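yo

u said u wanted the structure for the complex thing, so here. seqs first:
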Amino acid sequence: MSRSDLSLRIISRTLAILSAAIVLLILGFLVRESAPALQELGLARFFTDPGWHPLSGQFSLVPMIVATLATSLGSVAIAAPLGIASAVFAHFYAPRTLAIWHRRLIELLAGIPSVVFGLWGLVVLAPLVARLGGSGQNLFTATAVLGLMILPTVALLSDAAIASLPRAWIQGAAALGMQRWSIVGKVVIPGARRGIGAGVLLALTRALGETMAVLMLAGNVVQVPNSLLSPGRTLNANIALELGYASTFHRSVLFVSGLMLMLVVSVIVVGISYRRGASDEWR
Amino acid sequence: MSGGRFHASATTPTRRHQIPEFFTAVAVWMAAGLVVATLAWILIDIAVRGISQLSPSFLIEGVEDAGRAGGIGPVLFSTMLILMVTLALAIPLSLATAIALTERVDQDSRFARNVRRCLDVLAGVPSIVFGLFGNAFFAIMLGLGYSILTGGLTLACMVLPILIRTSEQAIVAVPNEYRYAAAALGLGRSATLFRVVLPAAAPALMAGVVLSIGRALAETAALIFTAGYVARRPESLLDSGRSLSVHIYDMAMNVPGGGSRAYATACVLVALLLAINATTTLLLHAAGLQGRSVGGKG
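structre next:
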């Protein structure tokens, strides 16, 4: 190996390790910054304190956790059927040209910034929802817009999973005289379930990680939501609202909530990546 | 995504089979129609409300009266500076990482697997967590404060996974014959890489860069507590400056009567992103990689 080859190898490997280490650096900083709260307050108090009054030392994260789970799971419930249907549409129902344009539009949807979704939700959707009661800035509005935002993840990954199915399966099913709806329901979706499942899970991580649209639409009142039309505040929104002025324990608790988000999302991502590694069925 | 389409024709349609066939088709068409209609609704809404507010002076003038008057000149300037910092760090880092990941033909050494897994996790980190990290590390620990530099560096960490993945794909897509030919001519690994592989991969590499610019432009949550809110024209990289997306958020949420100006800014941002989307498609087409999905993480 010549000298320039060796130095290329050393430099590129070192920088690759640096890139990979960033995620550990982030984790390290979250742990470091949340350590004061975790040590002094303990984990239990985030669940047992009577409420979220950081200035008087009450740090219950329960209302925020409930709101985060409600909006994330709700948005996945919206995005999963629509996204899968959208992928099936592009493969089996749309004429070729329409299918191409449909995919382009979905990719476009993936690129629209969350603030723009938030702005649209705030100005257009919230007044419509307000007719059902309240101000329109509530969990329902936030969940609906969030569902729209994560839909491309489901649609594009389901599309890729369906595209990678062996053609022979579908041709065989058609040769057996199965109709389109039963080919889709009995061959395609069961066959592509790993890829579709990965898409839905990744969409869940997107929903858990989304801040701006929810911040602009959910109303941001700290309370355990009792209906879809009540306002709520998610963990992400809470960080965005309070990091600016938080100090000492308050700041540290915000980092704890960031750490929670990161750990949940990372576990899901690593789970998907191990499952993908275990079998090459998905790609 | 390859556009494989399969035709299934009913042989002897009976009534029992036709009814579910019909309803499935209706449901699928309605779902797809709903998605497209909502997207069209958003885009048309942004265009209609935004364009009426737009004028050349809006793009140049300073922010006045908290944004209700004047334009977005300094905001565009700050956005550009943040992007430059982001790219200055992210491009060399991601190129080197992509080279390291693709240097072996089998591409699945333990080293590469572990690096990829770390990058997968990094790609999933919520943007607000990048904000927390940037605030704690760049702003406070390194003492950069709320500044263009802090914001740009934070965004660089954020776009790194996607930039690495696109660079990797670009390098892998170069036909192996090029490498064999270079080796047959007696070129070493690094000469092959810099003289043959990277120039051949240039359009696809560019597409990755453009795509990352799109991601960085769209980001808000990671910037609020790193690049900050200040709407003045920054004088150096250590000044705070707000990006287009932060400006939209601030106008919509914190400035009463700022909605129409928020729409105008959103219109500028979406137009930029549409241009970026088109450029990416064009570059991928030039690189012979068209049809490859670039929109989703995965």
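The mean pLDDT of chain B is 86. Chain B has two domains: 14-53, 56-297.
cya
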